[in-house]
Design goal:
Blueprint (H helix, E strand, L loop, with lengths): L1 H15 L5 H20 L4 H5 L2 H11 L5 H23 L5 H11 L15 H6 L8 H4 L5 E3 L4 H9 L5 E3 L8 H4 L2 H7 L5 H9 L2 E2 L8 H4 L4 H4 L9 E6 L2 H7 L19 E6 L16 E7 L1 E7 L13 E5 L4 E4 L5 E7 L4 E7 L2
Parallel strand pairs: 1-2
Antiparallel strand pairs: 2-9, 3-4, 4-5, 5-11, 6-9, 6-11, 7-8, 7-10
């Protein structure tokens, strides 16, 4: 019994210590071989040895390191099922791929009528496969983000429009009435419950919650004023949506127009973006994957922008980090395909901004 106890302890120690040297392993093997040979001389059979409690325990300990057959079978079944689903999805036979899409969303507890993506995008993966900028001239001589006013379209085109150099136009929203009308309540009056504008945004437009815990666009305007203005000590919130509903666009565009400084030949995107949120929140550092540079007009509230050139431009750019605060009435012009950027609503008022691309 003493020998068995010693051997069992030795095996246990061997399992715990993966770096045990070969000499100890060899000694243990020799000792077990000696015990086995002695048992055979005494007339024991292998089946008799298998009934010994110590041997049974050792075998159970060793078996615990083996993956059960049921696990392997389950893994193989899942893998085969996955391949089958991929084949069915790509071939659309005998089940159409939009049927699989709906079943997947329903399994996640989401509404297939309002959700446009079955799987969340992985921003870190997008950054990994992001094509490098053609060159780093856009940030080479940038020392700060300039603020200018009364700039002509010709001068804006030459210095900023297509050079990738960021700029803030201080009088960018002159002659606009948006600052007099735009508010949380004004947006709420446009996107009323069960309205076509609200339904179209949820069905056809893009809507980003920026981790504000809103599941639908409708939930945003179901907030009370206390929640919206954080008077009830609620967490800050921030959202963005594309203005692809024609009726809502017609109402909003009564109060803003094409920025005066854009080049005459430049055309703005048909779809504008609205960004709205309380102080203390914004968008985390990211880079966009859009076609053209863009402008964003600060209508109400104040927003702080943080910019970083892409890492491949580190040794060319004079600075690797820029910050600028955009006040109401100002417009920031930025190529978000080139610059990593983050925003933060600061001050005391709800921030509302309108933005669009231009070519």
């Amino acid at each position: 019994m003493d020998d068995r106890s010693v051997n069992k302890n030795m095996c246990s120690q061997k399992r715990k210590d993966s770096k045990e040297d070969d000499s100890l392993r060899k000694r243990v093997n020799l000792h077990f071989q000696y015990l086995y040979d002695s048992a055979m001389k005494e007339g024991f059979s292998p089946s008799d040895l298998a009934k010994i409690d110590a041997v049974v325990e050792l075998r159970e300990d060793i078996d615990c390191f083996e993956i059960p057959n049921c696990v392997w079978k389950s893994f193989i079944a899942l893998f085969v099922s996955f391949i089958a689903i991929v084949i069915v999805y790509l071939s659309e036979w005998p089940i159409k791929n939009n049927t699989i899409f709906k079943l997947w969303l329903e399994a996640k507890g989401e509404d297939p009528k309002t959700e446009r993506c079955a799987v969340e995008k992985f921003e870190f993966f997008q950054d990994m496969v992001r094509p490098p900028p053609p060159c780093c001239r856009f940030c080479q001589n940038v020392k700060s983000i300039e603020k200018v006013e009364n700039i002509t379209p010709e001068k804006f085109e030459k210095l900023y429009a297509y050079t990738g150099r960021p700029v803030v136009i201080k009088d960018g929203t002159k002659n606009w009435t948006a600052s007099e009308y735009f508010s949380f309540q004004f947006m709420k009056s446009i996107y009323t419950k069960n309205s076509a504008a609200l339904k179209n945004v949820e069905k056809y437009c893009q809507f980003f919650t920026y981790k504000s815990n809103f599941k639908t666009f409708e939930e945003v305007f179901e907030m009370s004023d206390e929640r919206a203005f954080m008077k009830d000590k609620s967490s800050p919130w921030y959202i963005g949506w594309s203005n692809c509903d024609l009726s809502a666009a017609n109402v909003l565009r009564q109060h803003y127009s094409r920025p005066y400084f854009l080049p005459k030949q430049a055309e703005s995107s048909k779809t504008d973006w609205i960004f709205m949120g309380s102080p203390g929140y914004g968008a985390s550092m990211h880079i966009d994957y859009v076609n053209n540079p863009s402008w964003q007009a600060q209508i109400t509230g104040t927003k702080r922008w943080s910019l970083e050139p892409p890492p491949e431009c580190y040794f060319i750019c004079k600075k690797s980090f820029f910050e600028v605060t955009v006040q109401p009435g100002e417009i920031i012009v930025l190529d978000t395909n080139l610059w990593f950027h983050a925003t933060l609503n600061v001050g005391d008022n709800i921030s509302i901004a309108i933005g669009s691309e231009f070519d």
